[in-house]
């Protein structure tokens, strides 16, 4: 993983989707085939012009082998901190 890439609140979901796809050396076409979604839809997700529903997000997480928290840019430390404040 590129150590210069930082997930978190400064990135939008589409940015995270694009980073994860590129880290796995997958093309938009390959991801669209894996998710059974049109390639233009993948592009819209990655350019933050469309937001995937929760079921599609689960599929993305499965394909990229990450948690939903990681997919949306929320790290475990951030989650633990928010829980301790509650």
TrEMBL record:
Pfam families hit by this protein: HTH_3
InterPro entries: Cro/C1-type_HTH (IPR001387), Lambda_DNA-bd_dom_sf (IPR010982)
Identification of the protein by name: HTH cro/C1-type domain-containing protein
Keywords linked to the UniProt accession: DNA-binding
Domain of life: Bacteria
GO molecular function: DNA binding
Annotated source species: Companilactobacillus nodensis DSM 19682 = JCM 14932 = NBRC 107160
Positions of the HTH cro/C1-type domain: 17-71
PROSITE patterns: HTH_CROC1
